[in-house]
Amino acid sequence: MPIPDQLKTIVVVMLENRSFDHVFGYLSLPQYGGRTDVNGLIDPATNLAYANDYEDQGYQPFEMPDQSFTSDMPHRRGEVRTQLAFRGRRATMSGFVQAYVDLTHSVVENPPVMGYLPPSSVFMSDFFAREYLICDRWFAPLPADTHPNRAVAFSGCSLVDDTKGRLIPYQDLVFEWLTKRDVRWRVYHPGLSFFLLFGQFDTPLTDNYRDLRKLAVDLQTESANELPQVIFIEPEYQDSPVHFNNIPNDNHPPLAVGPGETFLHDIYATLSSSPRWPHMALIVTYDEHGGFFDHVPPLPIKSGLPAKAQYRDPFTTTGVRVPAMIASPFVPRGQCSSRTFDHTSILQFFAESFAGGTNKYSKEVTARLDQGIESLSALFSRDARTDVPVAPTPPVLIAQAVPVTPPSSWTENQKAFALAGQKLLEHDARGAMNKFPELVHLQPLISQLSSPQPPPPQARRATPARAKRGARKKR
Amino acid sequence: MLSAVLRPVPGRSLTRVWAIAASVALTHCAAIDSFHAEPRNICPGSTVTVSWQASGQIELTSTPPVLPAGTRPSTGSEQLVLEHSTRFVLHALGFLSERTAEADVTVLENESRNFGGSANCEKPEHGVTRAVSPPVSAALRVASVTNVNSRPIVLQRQDVRVTLQPGDTTTVFAGLTADGLWEIEAPLVSDELCDDALAALHDRLFFRITFACVS
Questions:
Q1: Which of A327, B108, B181, B207 is a plausible cystine mate for B211, CB 3.0–4.6 Å?
Q2: Which chain A residue's Cα is nearest to B196?
Q3: How far apart are CA A388 and CA B79, in angstroms?
Q4: Which residues of B touch A91 (CB under 8 A)?
Q5: CB nearest to B1's CB, from A57, A70, A452
Q6: Taking the mean position of all CA atoms in its chain, how far away is CA A393?
Q7: CATH value at residue B50
Q8: How many domains are there within chain B?
């Protein structure tokens, strides 16, 4: 599909850990408009196609107000396998409650993994669904957790199949791909950037990485030739071990979605009020489903084992469906696309926009294209809308009203963030503190933790003292 | 770290021992290995056993409050008589770590629940089948049973066997206890492959029990 000539800037936001049905399942319900163009939830209280079971008792999806949780939800590779509950080649999507009990040891009447949110809880996502375009057939690329899915999203393949307290093995990211093609790009981050976890520390200290608070002024003051063609906007990650006066807003449980919805509100308000909006597209999606129920089985997309992969079993399906929204003057109002996408659809779109074809990104992305994953270009019209819908006012203090649960213990991803921050400080302490001031909180935390809970082996190897001792031994 | 743990605690010696024990617990990671409140579905006045195995400083609470407050040993069980639906919360606190597990016990008098799960074609001559043991108190009695599937089923409990059309409700099981083995079959139609029937049923078979309690 031809890409509109006037589309000059593509903005990508990737949030964390919610399924399509959890966020948008309500759209099909009669009490919320009963949209027939959306593959959401139909009669969720009685539809046995959605039924999960644990110890012979049935569990149905239920409406759940936004809330924080007592724990994270299961979404590691083995846990997703339990959730998908394959019967032969059919994923029955009946094991979400089982996986929840296995992880949390909680057996409750309404397991939160079966909960779906009402539109009042996702006021901004609901706004995108009403005023712009959503996709109801966008899948996380892999049935696994954060590191593998974000690796695919930002490079086309993953060398890991799990999230651990280590750096993700480095591979060329989309930034190198864009740079090689002279495409201007930038990352805006409120706190620590996820891209630090790939262990390449020079680029994040350049001017390509900017504080999110600079976005508005950049959009107002930069000329068309200065403004990036691709912008990645990161949330404040729940798994970041340190924060600098920001509250996490990436929607990762145990966090509620209120802060994330407010984050989307602020992003949209900033973009749509800028003079560049007539030439922009905002793409919002989630890295993976985070353990929440979805009724659509994943696609049989084979990933193959990349060279240097640190796992042996290649992936044979996508992950679970995730919410995806496009806001742009170049998409129609209030529509839902049922074309088949995953995160590599964004990379295909870049390839089409900047390299002349959907198959010009990488062989891994082309392999997914050949199996039915489409480029986002099909969503865009050449004719631009002239209306700019005004974002709704956030419900009264939603971010404050919904308690933010502080992390109760370090997750694997938090350990990875801490390790990346520590290595960045070793790499260039001054540059690191200038770019990521929250790192000031990191060292005391690591010291505190290192007594009873030694950091992972990589972290211990990385301490300056150990490095010095190692250097002395070598001499 | 150890000197902080063993700091003097004013007061009686027993208090000091507890303070040290709590501090020692907090130097280790919190973990919950198991947490159960059984039976999960009961009549008012049923006895419930809450049991757990965990590490760290352990607290057990409930809503509504039916338990004495305070810390608990790392492994334990308590028996309670419940009149109302109750949520038990086990909280394990360790050094910079905590874990929480929840267990609901639900009073199901005059309430309904679905029971069943993933079905199979292990006995294709019987069609799609599923054996079900509802996790309910022996005090709960069947008031009625409903076929919630999209196809006819044959339901058997002890010596009672009945065919139910989709949506049909029967009282032929009324008065029987609900715990124990139930067998569901969804017979095949002529020339139908069992796997096709299974797919049509979304790989699941359930039935709905409405409960009564004997006063």
A1: B108
A2: A90
A3: 62
A4: none
A5: A452
A6: 24
A7: 2.60.40.10
A8: 2
DSSP B203: T
DSSP for A88-154?
Answer: TTEE----HHHHHHHHH--B-SS-GGGEE--TTTTHHHHHHHHHSEEESSEE-SSSS-HHHHHHHHH
Residue numbers of the domain that contains B124: 112-213
A105 vs B118: CB contact, 8 Å cut-off?
A: no
Collapsing DSSP states into helix, strand and coil, what is residue B50?
A: strand
Asked if B180 and B205 sit in the same domain, the reply is yes
pLDDT of A143 reads 98
Compare all CA atoms of chain A with the CA of B121 and give the residue at the minimum distance: A87
Contact indicator for A450, A442 with CB cutoff of 8 Å: no
- The secondary structure of A26-57 as a DSSP string is GGGSGGGT--TTS---SSTTT-GGG-EEETTE
Looking at B107, B133, B161, the residue that finishes a domain is B107
Residues B92 and B130 occupy one common structural domain: no
Helix (H) or strand (E) holding B86: strand B86-94
| CATH code of the domain in which B128 resides | 2.60.120
A219 contacts: CB under 8 Å, gap ≥ 6: A227, A270, A271, A274, A275, A276
B44 and B118 together in one domain: no
Q: Are A322 and A138 contacting, i.e. CB atoms less than 8 angstroms apart?
A: yes
Contacts of B117 in chain A (CB under 8 A): 51, 53, 56, 58, 94
- State the smallest CA–CA distance between residue A82 and chain B in angstroms: 13
CA distance A223 to A8: 12
Structure token digits, residue A180: 């090689």
Shortest Cα–Cα distance, A359 to chain B (Å)? 36
For chain B, say whether A225 makes contact (Cβ under 8 Å).
no
- If asked whether residues B168 and B136 sit together in one domain, one would say yes
From CA A94, how far away is CA A230, in angstroms rounded? 39
One digit per residue, pLDDT tens: chain B, 215 residues? 223 333 333 333 433 434 444 444 455 788 999 999 999 999 999 999 999 999 999 999 999 999 998 899 999 999 999 999 999 999 999 877 889 999 999 999 999 999 999 999 998 888 999 999 999 999 999 999 999 999 999 999 999 999 999 999 999 999 999 999 999 999 999 999 999 999 999 999 999 999 999 87
Q: Residue A299 to residues A75, A316, A368, B11, B34: CA-CA distances in angstroms? A: 17, 9, 11, 65, 35
Whether B17 and B23 have beta carbons less than 8 Å apart is answered as: no
Nearest to B114 among A49, A58, A449 (CB): A58
CA distance B9 to chain A (A): 22
Beta bridge partners of B163: B154
**Domains in chain A, please, with CATH?**
9-401 (3.40.720.10), 412-474 (no CATH)
Residues of A in contact with B36 (CB under 8 A): 107
Residue of A nearest to B27 (CA): A452
Q: What is d(CA B36, CA B101) in angstroms, rounded to the nearest whole number?
A: 9
**In the A/B pair of chains, how many CB contacts fall below 8 A?**
113
Q: Please answer yes or no on whether A87 and B206 come within 8 Å at the CB atom.
A: no
Last residue of a domain, one of B51, B76, B107: B107
Question: Does one domain contain both B14 and B80?
Answer: yes
CA distance A356 to A377: 12
Which chain B residues are closer than 8 Å to A68 by Cβ?
A: none
Stretch 11-30 of chain A: residues touching chain B, C-beta under 8 Å: none
Residues B84 and B99 in one domain: yes
Of B27, B41, B133, the CB nearest to A452: B27
